[in-house]
Every structure is written in C-alpha cells, then in structure tokens.
Amino acid sequence: MLYTILLKSHSGLRWLLLFMFIATLVQLGRKAFGKADISVKSISLFTLIVTHIQFLIGLVLYFISPKVVFDAASMKDSILRFYLVEHISLMIIAIIILTIGYSKSKQYFSVPKGAKKAFYYYLTSLVLILISIPWPFRIPIADWF
Ligand code: HEM
User: Fold this and answer.
1) Ligand 1: which atom is nearest the Cα of residue 59?
2) For residues 43-61, average pLDDT
3) Ligand 1: which atom is nearest the Cα of residue 94?
4) How much is the average pLDDT of 2-29?
5) Three-state DSSP state, 69
C-alpha cells in the first residue's frame, strides 16, 4: 500500500519536475541572454524543492522496492543494475549539481550573470535526470505515469 502510493507519486512527480525544469530554464534564459527584467529566484527555488522531494521519495523506494535487489548477481542483469546502481547514482549527482547551482547563484539571481550561472547548472542537472529516468522504451517494466 505505502509502496504503491510512493511509486505512483515518484512516477507522476517526474512530469511536474520536468515541466518545472523547462519553465525555470526558459525564465533563466530570458534573464541571462535576453536581459529580461524578471525575477527568477522563486521559480528556481521551487524546482529545487520539487527535486528534493522526489529524492526523498526515491530514497524510501530504494529500500522497499522489489526492483532493488541487494545482491552481487544484480550487476549482471541490466534492469536490476539500473535500479540498484545507475538510477540512484546519476540522480544523486544531478541533485548535487542542482543544489550547488542554486546556492552559488542565490545572491546573484537579480543580475543576468547570476541567472546565466544558474542556467548552466540547471541545464546539466536536467540532462542527467533525463538520461537516468527509467523510460519504458529503455526499461520495459517501467511506466509512463
Ligand atoms: C530527480 C530525481 C528522480 C526522478 C525524476 C526519478 C524518476 C523515477 C521514475 C519515473 C521511476 C519509474 C516509476 C515507474 O516505473 O512507474 C523511478 C523509479 C525508481 N526510483 Fe527514481 N527518480 C529520481 C530520483 C531517485 C532517487 C534519488 C532514488 C533513490 C534514492 C530513486 C529511486 C527509485 C527507485 C528505487 C525506483 C523503482 C521503484 C519501483 O518501481 O519499485 N529515484 N524513478
């Protein structure tokens, strides 16, 4: 029961997260490259928070999911290896990059230079997230929602 709720939340939250990343990158890009006079701090913070919530749900799933099998033999199976090692490690790297990007830029969001710095950190994090999501075309047992 708890597992199903967490799995559905984790799976569905990916869409909000991806939407927030794109919206944030558009705003950061407008400020950094178009010199638009807009505020980007709140949207950047919101994306950071959504990603951290996703991380916490993922962390609980990691210890209750039947797809995470703590056994050396899992390394020989591409799907078991994906859930045991690849998904968690790339996502943690993506979240660290995002968090560093936000904290390094937070005092400078009001100027285009700060937005530019954040833009590249958020973009790198998004690329890592996109390549480590278990998309059904890559991991046949995964779902779209
Ligand atoms: C931005 C970060 C993340 C995103 C966008 C994300 C996205 C997803 C998605 C879409 C699924 C597939 C759900 C399904 O098949 O319906 C999934 C599964 C899973 N994720 Fe994440 N994830 C993230 C971070 C993490 C982290 C940091 C961990 C561990 C600490 C984690 C642990 C898991 C586990 C264990 C599963 C398999 C659950 C199961 O099907 O039993 N995720 N994740």
Assistant:
1) 30
2) 98
3) 1
4) 98
5) coil
* C-alpha closest to that of 11 among 59, 66, 54: 54
- pTM of this structure: 0.94
Residue 97 near residue 22, CB atoms below 8 Å: no
Identify the CA nearest to 67 among candidates 57, 77, 53. Answer: 77
User: How far, rounded to the nearest angstrom, does the alpha carbon of residue 14 sit from its chain's CA centroid?
Assistant: 8
Measure the CA–CA gap between 101 and 98, rounded to whole angstroms. Answer: 5
| Strand blocks (E) in 1-145 | none
Chain segment 57-77, per-residue pLDDT in tens: 999 999 999 999 999 999 999
Residue 35 Cα to ligand 1 middle (Å):
36
User: Strand ranges (DSSP E) for 42-110?
Assistant: none
Q: CA dist 85 to 24, 79, 98, 110, Å?
A: 29, 10, 20, 38
* C-alpha of residue 39 to centroid of ligand 1, in Å: 31
Residue % of the chain over a pLDDT of 70? 100
